[in-house]
User: Which sequence fits this backbone?
């Protein structure tokens, strides 16, 4: 199971709009992973260290986002080092990447980004894509959405999936109250299959989104087909997304 740790004063203060959590959850769940917790903390070394320490002990993997840049308030790496009982050390692989990325001699602020918790591993993608920093069971990613989205798919592929995740989605024109009783009955007959119902507003109209997911592909498929047939017969089915088994995240 995975925990997400999002770091940044600007998020908690409302200075910027948080854009990463939903994208990470969607990417990881579609890749067959289970998430157990999402935590948002300030740019404070002690708080970051405590969060890394707790989450890394409680979960199989932790993915953090934010606080790895060159400025004074980028203290995630310092907090991670404290959590792991390590010192910040010059990582020569990261130094080489940064020198290549910036095209020459590094400034003091750029060199600061090469100071990683001892025993960290950096995983470099193709071209000049920013490396993924890994230390123990923690993946430490940047918070800039375009940079994070470049990496979360690769992280999803590195982490062993919990199982052959299988998910289908149905959009129906009725209100949740019209199908709540029928969905409850379907859920009671479907064992380990998880069935979700969520209101959606499109063009000023209310619809309902139904998700059907499970590691048991046969059971999930049967529930999906029964629901699709029922909604189609009732004249409610707007669209459906074919079930996806262990969708590959974008590389």
Assistant:
């Amino acid at each position: 199971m995975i925990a997400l740790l999002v770091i940044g004063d600007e998020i908690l203060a409302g200075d910027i709009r948080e854009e990463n959590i939903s994208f990470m959850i969607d990417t990881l769940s579609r890749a067959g992973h289970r998430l157990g917790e999402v935590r948002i903390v300030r740019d404070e070394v002690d708080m970051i260290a405590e969060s890394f320490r707790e989450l890394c002990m409680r979960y199989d993997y932790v993915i953090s986002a934010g606080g790895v840049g060159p400025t004074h308030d980028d203290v995630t790496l310092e907090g991670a080092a404290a959590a792991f009982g390590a010192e910040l050390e010059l990582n020569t692989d990261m130094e080489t990447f940064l020198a290549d990325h910036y095209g020459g001699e590094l400034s003091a602020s750029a060199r600061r980004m090469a100071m990683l918790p001892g025993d960290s591993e950096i995983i470099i993608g193709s071209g000049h894509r920013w490396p993924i920093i890994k230390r123990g069971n923690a993946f430490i990613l940047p918070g800039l959405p375009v940079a994070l989205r470049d990496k979360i798919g690769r992280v999803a592929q590195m982490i062993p999936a919990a199982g052959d995740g299988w998910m289908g989605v149905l959009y129906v024109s009725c209100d949740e109250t019209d199908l709540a009783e029928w969905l409850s009955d379907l859920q009671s007959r479907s064992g380990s299959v998880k069935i979700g119902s969520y209101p959606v507003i499109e063009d000023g109209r209310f619809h309902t989104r139904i998700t059907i997911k499970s590691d048991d592909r046969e059971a999930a498929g049967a529930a999906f087909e029964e629901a699709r047939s029922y909604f189609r017969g009732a004249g409610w089915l707007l669209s459906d997304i074919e079930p996806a088994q262990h969708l590959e995240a974008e590389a």
User: Anything to note?
Assistant: The chain is about 40% helix and 30% strand.
